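ERR on first pass: missing label on line 2. Operator R.T. fixed the label and resubmitted. Corrected input:
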Amino acid sequence: MTEQLVRTRPTGGWTGSLRRGMERNLPPAKLLPDEQPSYVASWIYVFGVLTLTALLVVVGSGIVLSVRGPDWWHTSAVGHYFNSVHLWSVELLMVFMSVHLIGKFFMAAWRGRRALTWITGAVSFIACATTALTGYLIQQNFDAQWISTQAKDGLNAIGVGAYFNVMDFGQMMLWHVALFPIVVALVVLLHILLVRRRGVVPPIARAGAAGDRS
Amino acid sequence: MSRWPREAAEPDPSSFGSRPYDLVKEFVVALVGVTVLTLLLAAVFSSPDEKSMSVASWAKADPGDFTATALAELDGSSDTAGYGPPYNTAADGQKIGPFALAKTVGVTHAIDTAQAFVLTPLEQATQSPDVRAALGTYMSASDDQRGAWTDAYSTALDKAGDDPAKVTPGGYGPVPVLLSQLLAQAKSGSLDATLSAESGFYHSDYTLPLMFLADGSDLAAAGEQQHLAGDQWGMTNEVDNYPGQVWLIPDSFFYQVSPFDHSPNGDALVWAVMAVLTAVFLLVPFIPGLRRIPRLIPVYRLVWREHYKTHP
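pass 2 clean. output:
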């Protein structure tokens, strides 16, 4: 009896537990499937991947702007172009994400233990919007002056401005290029892993049909 | 009692049958498409870069407004001087009901407007004997005496339409000399550098010059001209009619309607409402009624119309 217990006891400590958990919840076939349920047949599904790719263009153009520093795009035509790419990729990101979000709402995509998938998606939207705000604040132009002097009143009103000073260019730069992107990356990664783990939400059973639980 | 078990009982996606789906190909095609679309939008529409306003450009363009603002900083009647936390204790800050969050957090970026915007810049520059004498007179005077000088000059400046050159002689003590010299420093551009560098050689914090600019009238006028003011849905607008932060429409909406548009606690109240709405947004899956909306407005029939053809 004791030998049996020893043989079946999980091994590998925390590392082993993590590996087994990953193998159980996210096997390769689930993580990168080459098939999807038959009901995944609508243009609305495209907006998830469009959101992700727009985010990658935002990050890519942001990296180019970071390499040359914050003054570059004000003095160089090439720099200004990359700033434009950054701006328009953000606009596309938010449009794609909004359509994705609205679509998922009307699909009631939180069904079947997918509530955390919805929540991480919603947090991603908020994190992206906040990151975008800090981007506007570090433009070093009239826009940044105006937005920072206006935004400070809202943040000060709830005490946040005491520690998150939108008129401190250095602080906002670090939040924009380091801290918020880390938050966005982690939340988006978790969102994608949850989508892969639970699979695409099935169709809502029509009223009176088999499986209707309304 | 919980609805969780019912929610968890949704059928497994694999039970619906499957079809080939190349996720990697979809991702690559989307990445190329979005990249090309972004490059085209950037090439066609570019991006705005409206030159920033400086204290120098403000002083040159509107010396009267600059002088009136500097006087307000000196006598403690400016917006910044009366702001409250996190800059000073002149007010309690905004409240949400009985909760004064700003006051609770306290002063973290102390700004003495007279010292920061007027006296320190004058003290740090090399001055003529007249200005040095005026500074000495002002610094050694009592608070009552300083108040009498600034009150008298403020009244005279109002009468002169904010034009210092038209102010009639009176008992203003050293105030006109100080403000005239500050205006000269501002026009030369040295005040921009002084305000930014009060914390040292290296600096990245523009709180002081931005607060000073915001206390004047010209920054607000420029913002309104670009349709960026709060009552113009400015939060969602951008200079030159570029698309702005349109995703802030819900926040901006509340600034347009009563009581938020006129309440002295408007900012705090809007934040409170948005905090509640954000919580609702995050917790949609758990809110009875709200989570049933997709069944009541059957957009899902469009999404899964192919499926319903075979599963009526």
